[in-house]
Prior knowledge:
Blueprint: H1 9-28, E1 33-34, H2 36-39, E2 41-48, H3 54-63, E3 70-74, E4 78-83, H4 88-101, E5 105-113, H5 115-143, H6 150-179, E6 182-183, H7 185-217, H8 227-259, H9 262-294, H10 297-312
Parallel strand pairs: 1-6
Antiparallel strand pairs: 2-4, 2-5, 3-4
Amino acid sequence: MTFAITARRGWWYALSLTFLLPGLLALLTGGLKPGIDFTGGALLHVRFKEPVTQQRIQSVVSDAGYNNATVQLTEENGALVRVRQLNIEQKDSILEALFSGISPGQELSFSSIGPIVGSEMTRAALVAVVIASALVLLYVIWAFRRMERAAVLGFAAIVALLHDAIFLLGLFALLGHFAQVQVDALFVTAILTVIGFSVNDTIVVFDRIRENREQHRKLPESSRPNFETTVNLSINQSLTRSLNTSLTAMAVLFALVVLGGPTIRLFSIALGVGFAIGTYSSLFNASCLVVSWDQSDGKIVWRKLREKLQRKDP
């Protein structure tokens, strides 16, 4: 059974826009909350002997003089407290306030990063994403240099890559807005991993397009499929492989979310969501964009829009 995927490419573009818009709005309104890896500060992980609430911990820490602290509960009565940069004496005072004001407990870990290190990490993260995008573009153009529209294939791969990265950023901006979730260096690792996964999936589909295109050139011109038919056939041939690969990886990540510790839970969630959206974009966006270029969809849409506006004029 062959699905008419490229024929409904307008639907896939609209669905992608629906996915991206809420996250983009959250990003523009400051929903993405950088953690201490980027801003500098201290992270204190504690565990109490009795059940605690986020509001109670927040109140005690605020009373101790740290009004901008953020608190995230973990399993087994644990909590992550993020505050501005602390020295050992200040950290001990917070621990004393928590254990005397809420419940006895123990310190599990403490880490502190200066603002200079945080700004350098932010710059390094941006450079890493830009370099990865440039290398992907160059590789795709080189790998498919013998195929027509090699530059268009590279452009489509970059669009799919950016689609996945923006979706993840938007998702965590929404989580930051509604659940005060912060992003750290592991989040950057997740984005780069998702980019690599998405590009790999996209190249598999493009490679199938190249193989089918070469085979179809050997057919008589009267029975030779057009470019859109070849792309649609290639997507259908890659569909099962891509879904199986993605679902297998997501099953492992689901186990990490359920059984793993709090320090890697958000990382696992980011990877799982990223793998899902990466599979979608490689199958339903990247290849369809190549067809849109071949069919001059942009010019057609612009002409129809202009004709519609002209009919409205008196």
